[in-house]
Amino acid sequence: MKSYMELLRELREDRDLTQSQVAQVLGTTQQVYSRYEKELNELPVRHLITLCQFYHVSADYLLGLPPWNKR
């Protein structure tokens, strides 16, 4: 199972986005966003929600949780 840092990076790279572009969506800096991808800072819930909406994925997916019916 992938960690959320791996999933954050994959989603960003699959869309050919820079850390700065995603940080702008979140209203933060590239440095802060980089720390999320490196798991040095925990991702705030408000940013989790924004990223789920931005990437059109569920929070379960982004957090690397298995589908609820397969737990």
Please give a structural write-up.
The longest helix has 11 residues, at 4-14. The protein has helices spanning 4-14, 19-26, 30-37, 45-55, 59-62. The protein is built from 5 helices and no strands. Helix 2 (19-26) packs across helix 3 (30-37).
What is the subunit arrangement here? Answer: single chain
Task: State the distance separating the first and last CA atoms.
Answer: 13 Å
Q: Which structural class best describes the helix and strand composition?
A: mainly alpha
Fraction in helix: 55-70%
Q: Could you tell me the mean pLDDT?
A: 93
Shape: globular
Which percent band covers the strand fraction?
A: under 5%
Number of helices: 5
Give Rg in angstroms.
Answer: 12 Å
Reported for the largest beta sheet, the result is: none
SSE run = HHHHH
Uncertain runs with pLDDT below 50, 5 residues or more?
Answer: none
**DSSP E strands, number:** 0
Topology:
Blueprint: H1 4-14, H2 19-26, H3 30-37, H4 45-55, H5 59-62
Descriptive keywords:
globular, mainly alpha, 71 residues
In a few lines, what is going on in this structure?
The chain is mainly α.
